[in-house]
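Revision sheet: structure tokens.
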Amino acid sequence: MANSKIAAGIKTDKSKEENNELVFSYLTLRNLIGFSGILLPLVLAIASKRPSDYYGIEPSISDYFYTDRGDILVAVLCILGAFLITYKGYTWKEQLLTFIAGICSIGVALVPTKMNCLECKLSIHTGNGGIFSFMAGTAWHFSFAAIFLLCLAIMSLVFFTKGREEDYYQQAGGNFTQKAKRNVVYKVSGWIIIGSLLILGLYFLIKPDLGQIPIVFAFEALAVVAFGFSWITKGQTLWPDGEHYLTKGIHKVKKMLQSPPEYG
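Predicted:
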């Protein structure tokens, strides 16, 4: 009974979304969240000016706070946090998860990890702990980061995969439906995030000597990129239902330009 109510609610929301003139903006918000996640580790890692013993990469994404890319890290995390806070899911549980994820994203930016370099000349940030100096340090910072990623993993595994039962399994001509394909992405992305968190947790617990391999950066980047792919898939950049929403938007603009509205 409960499942049928959920399915009916999602069907209603889907119908609203398909006929809503603001659907272009709504899907764009999902894609902005996703692309922010995908691009963040790439933008930070490419051509950073500070030399690093870890094959030219900082030990973790958080360590870029004290490099010439520190302002980019803070800006992207705060923008991403704002996107997540303003995102409205289909249920209050989704809204709560994205709200917590958004707060934690901003928390990662404003409560930095401890500074490992003695003199970070290229950084615009100092080692005094950022805005909330009384919270600065590894424990608070990693807690924000872990909760941020965990919330997004739950979104992918639990909420993004929801829908009508026939959408999960229905096949046309032996092929999976678009929804079924997207569900695969959601599940793979969610488990990659959880797996990355578990590996990082074991790493900090055991603290093995892996030399110059940036193991923390690698699994942080993997988790963030996985979350990004999940969201651009939810935004129907990948495997859309019918006509791509961007194409649909372009057609609407063309139609408006060809037949502008008349005002009395």
